[in-house]
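Attaching the record inline, Q. Sequence:
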Amino acid sequence: YLFQDDKFSSLKKDHPHVYIDFRNYHSQNQDTLNDQIYSDILDQIYEKYPELKLHGDVALRSIYSVEIKRNDESIWKFDKEHNESAYQSRLNAFLEEKLKNNEVHVSKLSEYLISRRRIRLCIIIDNADQFSDSIQEKIFLLSQSICRRSKALVIISLREGYYYQWKNYPPFNAFQSNAYHITAPPYQEVIQKRIDFTLQQLSDVDGRSSGIITQNIKLSIDNESVLLFLQSLRKSLLKPNSQLLKFIQETTYPNIREGLEVFKQFLISGHTEISNYIVRQRVDPDSVHHIPYWEFVKAVALGNKKYYDHEISLIHNLFYPAQGNNNHFIKIKLLMYLDHIAINKGVAGKYINTGELINYFSDIGYQYKAIENEIIELSKYRLVETDDVISDRIAPTYSINKNQSICISLKGHHYISSLLYDFSYIELTLQDTPIYDSISFEKIKKNFPMADNYGKRDLSQRVLVAQNFIDYLKKEEVSEKSIPLLPSTANISVKIESEIQPDIQRIGRKLNS
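Structure, as predicted:
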């Protein structure tokens, strides 16, 4: 869920609303957290709606009219009738004491708005979904407390996975809540708006933009160059059937934040050929092919590293066996098997019992524990998903529940239908895949090109070592004793070799040009 202040602008006409960004409280002392939130609610009301004069003497006397009347008829009666000055002093002291308790005052103020002004206070607590489950639980309880005590309308953003997992358990089942699901917007729309906004801001500014990288390093860049780079990026990403946009969409949707992280990784990667894209945009401004797909994948996968490391890369290595396993193909075969089910049975029948899946692979010869570990890694990478909708939790648990149902995710489908057969993926993943055959290892080691100071590696040698790696995979696949699960799971390495030939031919033309 995502609520933004401008989405509730229509409430200003009739109902006062308060927007609380919970990210501002992430380091707040838990003992004073609630009081600080109540204090900020009051500050916003006073600042945004001065015409209501809720901080004035008239409003305060009306808010606490019941208590004031009770005191007027008892402990304040004599001063009210015989000593106006003393009465006013006691009244002011009373109001001052009431204002010290922010929680009580918010409740009383909200009740006053309902009964006297015929308007209802709306409180929006945003970005709670960016925190751990335990903090989201505390925020939920706080929201319920505000709602029950003040009769205000409270809107809170929670992670979908957290809500659906716990909605039938305490504290959720103790309260009656209305849940609204907001579907993630299309990536094309999100990225286009961000790029267009930046282009608009830069187009109105001449000269150079500067910033500080570290305390001793400053960066200055010509604004025209930034404009040219962003224009080339926009055209490459937003062109029809863009492979770049498809990669972001299919490997991260519906987690928009994850998709933006991939986009950001490309922007800041040390392997992003920014100068080349600027030149291409300047020379051929109408082209939509300035940023090749393989360069995009490389930049995202490597970040600022010279060599690929699956433990820190945003792109996962399907060939890297899980702990206690030395088979390069189990992840791939699991995904292919689940993909086959999804394609043939559709959305309604795409799930299979996890225990049944493990038993099926175990019965044909794969080690039971190895299959479990591989499924755990696939779940960790979000290449598979379960039917209890927990993929978007901040702190997911990676364990096997044999009673769960499992299916391939859109991300998993993209890996085995597209990325697996791309030269850039093969050339990257071979860099940290363990090689169990000594002869193949020596050949790959001998031909592997090292990176220079700029992270560049000899292109012809990269092609050669990729072919060496595929030859090794073919040898390993032939040595498998297990029978193929499906025709589509047989000869995986041969299909990879065949599918990457267009990429190798393209590289050959480049080397010969």
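The radius of gyration is 31 Å. Residues 1-13 have pLDDT under 50 and may be disordered.

More tomorrow.
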